[in-house]
Design a protein that fits this description.
- The complex is a heterodimer.
- By secondary structure, chain A is mainly alpha-helical.
- Chain A has helices at residues 3-25, 34-47, 58-80, 97-111, 117-131, 134-142, 148-174, 181-206.
- In chain A, helix 1 runs antiparallel to helix 7 (148-174), helix 2 packs antiparallel against helix 5 and helix 5 runs parallel beside helix 8 (181-206).
- The mean pLDDT of chain B is 71.
- Classes of the chains: A mainly alpha, B little secondary structure.
- Chain A: It comes from Tetradesmus obliquus.
- Chain A: It is found in: Endoplasmic reticulum membrane.
- Chain A: Belongs to the ERD2 family.
Chain lengths: 215, 10
């Protein structure tokens, strides 16, 4: 494992910790899209179905369990916690699941490398992860006074994707037979989706102003 | 083949 991959995973983990701290610490999920969180849970479930059949390393197994556990907890808090669920901006979080899930499913069926249930679902998870942030970005545009934790959460998630691209570039040059067109294309698309957000994030940071995305 | 090597990523 190279330093970019490890740093990417740590950013991913940190983003989830920041989100959980926000939700449980201030008992509020204001500005957080439940749709994005549920899509991520679906991404992890469909991708990690091989958790007990394809052992890679203790690190991988532990991280998979942590991602499954924490994303389940986030969805649980937002849907069922007596206090936290009251802070969810349901009326604003209107992105349609089907708009993202259906194309991902069709593309997975059309392009899967091997037609086994595990492989098709794994391919589906790659497509879905690329676009799962969209409900969150739309909700951010609609949210007045985005708090720091929410802005940092999305920033850390975007950093994770950017670092994975560096990891792929590194692996491309250091490993033979590392040709991952599907994963690369989806990863680049996913990172491009964050570009607009990054621009306004850095602008607000530079000017020492509160983050706001123009509608 | 395609996909295989990425199975060691998260």
């Amino acid at each position: 494992m190279n330093v970019f991959r490890l740093a990417g995973d740590m950013m991913h983990l940190l983003s989830i910790v920041v989100l959980l701290l926000k939700i449980t610490g201030i008992k509020s999920c204001r500005g957080i899209s439940l749709k994005t969180q549920e899509l991520y849970l679906l991404v992890f479930i469909t991708r990690y179905l091989d958790i007990f059949t394809n052992f890679v390393s203790l690190y991988n197994t532990v991280m998979k369990l942590v991602f499954l556990g924490t994303s389940s907890a986030i969805v649980y808090y937002m849907r069922y916690d007596r206090i936290i669920k009251l802070t969810y901006d349901k009326e604003q979080d209107t992105f349609k699941y089907l708009l993202l899930v259906a194309p991902s499913a069709v593309l997975a069926l059309a392009t899967s490398h091997v037609y086994t249930v595990l492989e098709v679902l794994w391919t589906f998870s790659i497509y879905l992860e690329a676009v799962a942030i969209m409900p969150q970005l739309v909700l951010l545009q609609r949210t007045q006074n985005i708090d720091n934790l929410t802005g940092n959460y999305v920033f850390l998630l975007g950093s994770y994707r950017g670092l994975y691209i560096l990891n792929w570039i590194y692996r491309f040059f250091t490993e033979k037979h590392y040709r991952q067109w599907l994963v690369w294309t989806c990863g680049v698309v996913q990172t491009i989706i964050y570009c607009d957000f990054f621009y306004y994030y850095f602008l607000s940071w530079q000017n020492n102003e509160k983050l706001a995305l123009p509608a | 083949g395609s996909g295989k090597a990425s199975k060691d990523e998260l």
